[in-house]
Amino acid sequence: MRLVVFGAGYVGLVTGTGLSDLGHEVLVFDIDPHRISKLKEGHVPIYEPGLADLVHRNQRGGRLAFASEIPASFANADAYFIAVGTPPGPNGAADLSAVMNVADVIAKVATRRAFVIVKSTVPVGTCDAVQARLDAAKVSLEVVSNPEFLKEGDAVSDFFKPDRVIVGARSEDARQMLRELYAPLQLSGERLVMTDPRSSELIKYASNTMLAIRISFMNELARLCHATGADIHAVRLGVGTDSRIGKKFLYAGPGYGGSCFPKDVQALAALGRESGVQLRVAEAAHSANEEQASFLAHLVDSALGGVRGKQITLWGLAFKPETDDIRESPAVRLASALLERGASIVCHDPEAGPNFAKLFGRKVTVKERDYDALDGSHALVLLTEWRSYRAPNFAEIKRRLKSATDGMPPVLIDARNIWRPGDVMRAGLRYQGIGVSLHRTPDRPSQILDRS
Questions:
Q1: CA 20 to 30 Å from 333, out of 71, 112, 318, 429?
Q2: Roughly how many angstroms between the first and final C-alpha of the chain, as a whole number?
Q3: Mean pLDDT score, 283-294
Q4: Distance between CA atoms of 402 and 409, rounded to whole angstroms?
Q5: What's the pLDDT band for 438 if we cut at 50, 70, 90?
Q6: pLDDT tier, 72 (very low <50, low <70, confident <90, very high otherwise)
Q7: CA–CA distance, 248 with 135 (Å, rounded to integer)
Q8: Cβ(198)–Cβ(225) under 8 Å?
Q9: Dist. CA 339–CA 356, nearest whole Å
Q10: Taking a C-beta distance cutoff of 8 angstroms, is the pair 128, 103 a contact?
Q11: Cα four-point dihedral sign 48, 50, 56, 61
């Protein structure tokens, strides 16, 4: 097939590249000429494991191209994918201006009957609105909902090995087209879920909000553990062994971030308000996540007896490992809170350092090497569980950190609960986890297994 993908961000770039690797002729369009120029030169603007190699291979094969204008050769495409951003507006509702702008472009350039496939995360009814906008086009264009479920850091694998592919279509022609398009991904079993566009749109928001609710509830329980002396590890194991609940997304931490969960939870809650249905659980998940950010800042402040005038090191700036994305990252929130309280910040991340430096400028110091970020700091806060942080040299950390003026040893605040408290304390350091009462915490192995 001949396909056009609008948007060269995480979703559009991975989708377009993946489709080209399946043998289709794909043009990825973006309004940012600088981004397109870089892609044409072979420079992938985002860090996503495996993506750069895939882009280069399909560019060499002539199946993948990039442009900031639609050439005549793609005006007769079989399908146009909308994969642009839908950021939250002032009230949390999704801003659909980019989606509608793309619809207008498609209406102008399309010269034959084609399908318009909406990958962007959009509120219920958006596909209907896009369809109404396209009905005035000179050719027949049918809108299909096909939301993405790509996890940053594992997006390439998610594209080729999806849990499911949701298709919201009105006609059998559209359903058949999507079956053919995704047939190579169905070889090991049926993954397509066919439904109507409105249900498809809601499935995306419901899925992300359901996961966000689990995370937020575990973080609330972690705060309760601090107040009562219970241990969040024991709670997680006891709850997760219930087959009705399961083990995934039950990890306490600094709160969720990224480009999906924060905006999608707010957008779903806003959709509920607009529809006269108050989604109290979704609203509570958002509030709990906001409170977790404040709780973490308070935890750091308490561990140091105040942070004013003290230097604090942050390890991990991206909102999750294997990405350089700092949107809604817990590290951004914590750094902002600590700077407001008079602390100085030194930090490291294997990939996200330049983005963090661009955001904060001279307010923070970003080091290229992880241990160099420790020199002279009073505390180390682990925020992202990159593999290189999982088994550090605690003796070297102790050597580089600075003891408190009252003689107390430096403190490690493990916001991901991945270190053994005993290993930390044997090195002469203090340990503080999330939802962990130290006097009752066993010397357990790392808590990173089965983390989703």
A1: 429
A2: 34
A3: 96
A4: 8
A5: low
A6: confident
A7: 44
A8: no
A9: 14
A10: no
A11: negative
Please name the residues in contact with 295: beta carbons below 8 A apart, sequence gap of 6 or more. Answer: 219, 223
Mean pLDDT of 136-164: 93
Place of tokens 């990159």: 386
Average pLDDT over residues 397-407: 82
Average pLDDT over residues 175-192: 88
pTM, whole model, 2 decimals? Answer: 0.90
Q: How far is CA 387 from CA 59, 268, 444, in A?
A: 31, 33, 18
Mean pLDDT of the 55-78 span: 93
What is residue 67's predicted lDDT score, i.e. its pLDDT?
95
Alpha-carbon distance of 152 to 208, in angstroms, equals: 13
Query: Sorting pLDDT into bands at 50, 70 and 90, what band is 442?
Result: very low
**Sequence-distant (≥ 6) Cβ neighbours of residue 263 within 8 angstroms:** 86, 87, 88, 94, 121, 328
pLDDT bucket at 405, cuts 50 / 70 / 90: low
Instruction: Of 21, 39, 20, give the one whose Cα is nearest residue 30.
Output: 39
Q: 75: exposed, middle or buried (C-beta count within 10 Å: 0-12, 13-18, 19+)?
A: middle
Catalytic residue among 127, 225, 260, 347: 260
* Nearest Cα to Cα of residue 381 among 322, 450, 302, 288: 302
**Residue 54 scores a pLDDT above 80:** yes
Which pLDDT score, from 0 to 100, does residue 259 have? Answer: 86
Contact 114, 80 (CB under 8 A): yes
Compute CA distances 49 → 14, 52, 329, 355, whole Å.
11, 8, 19, 17
The rounded distance, in Å, linking the Cα atoms of 395 and 307 is: 24
Q: Which residues of 136-172 are buried (b: 16+ CB within 10 A; e: fewer)?
A: ebeeebbbbbbbbbbebbbbbebbeebeebbbbbbee
Q: What is the pLDDT of residue 37?
A: 94
- Kindly state the tokens that stand for 373: 């970020």
Is 127 a known active-site residue?
Answer: no
The DSSP 8-state label assigned to residue 423 in this structure reads H
Distance (Å, whole) CA 200 – CA 67: 30
**C-alpha Rg value of the chain to the nearest Å:** 24
Place of tokens 């009814």: 125
